[in-house]
Amino acid sequence: MIVAGFGFRGSASVASLRDALSQASGTHSVTHLATVNDKANSPVFLAFSKTVGMPIAEICATQLTAQPTQTQSTASQAARHTGSVAEAAALAAAGPGARLLAPRSISTDRLATCALAQGAST
Questions:
Q1: Residue whose C-alpha is closest to residue 13's, from 5, 23, 21
Q2: Which residues sit opposite 117 in a β-bridge?
Q3: Number of other CB atoms surrounding residue 29 within 10 Å
Q4: Which of 32, 47, 75, 93 is the most exposed place for a label (fewest CB within 10 A)?
Q5: Distances (CA, A) of 38 to 58, 68, 78
Q6: What is the layout of strands, in order, in the sheet containing 32-36?
Q7: pLDDT digits (tens, 9 = 90+) for 10-31
Q8: pLDDT band at 81 (very low <50, low <70, confident <90, very high)
């Protein structure tokens, strides 16, 4: 299982999310999406999930803060107590022993980030 974790601003669009995913995914075949639970059911993320045909894993705040992140965003640290929402969401959703395949990539419009993690059983 390869999970694409996302962090995004309220003004992000489906295009923002798609751009961040495109930058992060490279040649990897992503199977699941993940983000923090209070954003997982936002209209833009639901529309994005439907567009790419992947299920969403909702990650709670305690799962986010438990994950070590490779990158450190001051904004993410202040808002969510993690260096990268995208990295932490991907790692949490991929499960115990997951490894980061791609650190967070930032969409061209700077409204979304995406990181990839692979589960230990894959």
A1: 21
A2: 3, 100
A3: 6
A4: 75
A5: 8, 21, 16
A6: 56-59, 32-36, 2-8, 112-118, 99-106
A7: 999 999 999 999 999 988 999 9
A8: confident
CA distances from 84 to 45, 50, 63, 91 (A): 18, 24, 12, 11
Distance of CA 104 to the CA centre of its chain: 8
Measured CA to CA in angstroms, residue 52 lies from 11, 30, 46, 110 at distances of 20, 10, 10, 20
Q: Is 55 exposed, middle or buried (0-12, 13-18, 19+ CB in 10 A)?
A: exposed
Q: Are 119 and 97 in contact (CB under 8 A)?
A: yes
Q: Full-prediction pTM beyond 0.90? A: yes
Could you give the count of Cα atoms lying within 13 Å of 83 in the half-sphere of its Cβ? 12
- Give the contacts of 41 (CB within 8 A, at least 6 positions apart): 58
